[in-house]
């Protein structure tokens, strides 16, 4: 069974750094794109970026490039989403997602990590 | 502003059918057979219901069906049940540069 298990909720202050994680299991971690989707309070879904753990190829949505860093450690089947300086506008639910071998649909979703940033 | 256009709401009585549209362009919905639909209950993670326009993942009831004509895709839920009340989002592959585009979501209410 494919599972994506995310790290727990975070409460941070503006300007702080943060790294959240997502551990994949039940499939070959290195052969599927895995990424992150943001959902701001009461809003829709936005993909932020994807990484192919097999070769660390990473794709960012233009609006998130330079704002976050996506990485993966294939030795522990874990992907990360990192901020160096949080803003209040980063307050959102963040979902880890596993795509197909090409990013055409998001077949599996983590449970979500709520990030709350206070100013 | 979302790339794909969905109606904000749709409703139906138990046992009836409801159809949600998802309109894109010739660069996304119209160009590829990679339309997906996701169901999201309040406070829960989205769940894939339809992929590649009309395919259902294992475990998704056959009451859920998808189709596409030109630049518009549709999700039909037949035999509505109370547990179908949720938000539904469509997405489409839009090429190797943009990857995916989403709709803003449709809230389905079971009357």
What descriptors fit this protein?
heterodimer, A: mainly beta, 0% helix, 53% strand, B: 111 residues, mainly beta, 3-stranded antiparallel β-sheet, globular
Task: Explain what this protein looks like in three dimensions.
The complex is a heterodimer of chains A (119) and B (111). Chain A contains no helices and 11 strands. By secondary structure, chain A is mainly beta. The mean pLDDT of chain A is 96. In chain B, strands 1, 3, 4, 7, 8 and 9 form a 6-stranded mixed beta sheet that branches. A 3-stranded antiparallel beta sheet of chain B has the order 2-6-5, with no helix packed on it. Chain B is globular and about 40 Å long. Classes of the chains: A mainly beta (119), B mainly beta (111). Chains A and B meet through strand 5 and strand 10 of A and strand 7 of B.
SSE topology string of chain A = EEEEEEEEEEE
Largest beta-sheet details of chain B: 6 strands, mixed
Mean pLDDT of chain B: 96
Radius of gyration of chain B: 13 Å
**Helicity range of chain A:** under 10%
Give the ordered list of helices and strands of chain B: EEEEEEEEE
Task: Give the overall silhouette of chain A.
Answer: globular
How many β-strand stretches of chain A? Answer: 11
Structural class of chain A: mainly beta
Which oligomeric state applies? heterodimer
Tally of separate helices of chain B: 0
| Outline of chain B | globular
The count of β-strands of chain B is 9
Question: Which regions of chain B contain 5 or more consecutive residues with pLDDT less than 50?
Answer: none
Average pLDDT confidence of chain A is 96
Strand and helix map with partners:
The complex is a heterodimer of chains A (119) and B (111).
Chain A: E1 3-6, E2 10-13, E3 18-25, E4 34-39, E5 45-52, E6 57-60, E7 69-73, E8 78-83, E9 92-99, E10 106-109, E11 113-118
Parallel strand pairs in A: 2-11
Antiparallel strand pairs in A: 1-3, 3-8, 4-5, 4-9, 5-6, 7-8, 9-10, 9-11
Chain B: E1 9-12, E2 18-23, E3 35-40, E4 47-50, E5 64-69, E6 72-77, E7 86-93, E8 100-102, E9 106-110
Parallel strand pairs in B: 1-9
Antiparallel strand pairs in B: 2-6, 3-4, 3-7, 5-6, 7-8, 7-9
